[in-house]
């Protein structure tokens, strides 16, 4: 993958990424990029390879082939620098329920080497922005599911990443909380954050700047929601997604 000038380079670049588990080829040469300030929805059914891809992007496993770059840093050659530019909200909650909101965030700040005075300012700023400043000293256990997700979003943003990864982050949330979290993340585009939002829920992808449809480890198509619909000749993104991943045309009124 050639180097690009900093002004034009995507924040996240994947080129022919492959990963197998024994005979199971989970990713079969996946390529796409995410630009600064872009919200890209990685849309795929269960088993598409989304979780495997996120495991590679967060350094849990190494790819068998291909290349991943984060803000210009090669994940294989300079993993510390690459991972330091990523913020992530995992599918499963990873907060300490018995610590306060502030304590959870301060622990994360220390892991990233942020001095206490600076972390205090950043914590107050990010909690104010997402509407949780009043819960700063509350134990996470007392918060609703939606607000716990907000705390995880705040934690992911605390070290000011270039790339935000959202891995099925709305699982288990009610519709109002899902919409609120999505709106919070969409607003980050104005700050130049590159956002990769993985989901199997088509309504969440409809708000994306661009959609990548992943199925059985392969990218089937990519483009704006309207372009994906036009590519399939379907009547909606939901219908297009069904058609692409089922291998059969969806009903005209789907």
From TrEMBL:
The keyword Chloroplast does not apply. Pfam families: ABC_tran. It comes from the Bacteria. InterPro entries: AAA+_ATPase (IPR003593), ABC_transporter-like_ATP-bd (IPR003439), ABC_transporter-like_CS (IPR017871), ABC_transporter_ATP-binding (IPR050763), ABC_transprt_ATP-bd_su_PQQ (IPR022467), P-loop_NTPase (IPR027417). One of its GO terms (molecular function) is ATP hydrolysis activity. Belongs to the ABC transporter superfamily. NCBIfam families: PQQ_ABC_ATP. This is ABC transporter ATP-binding protein.
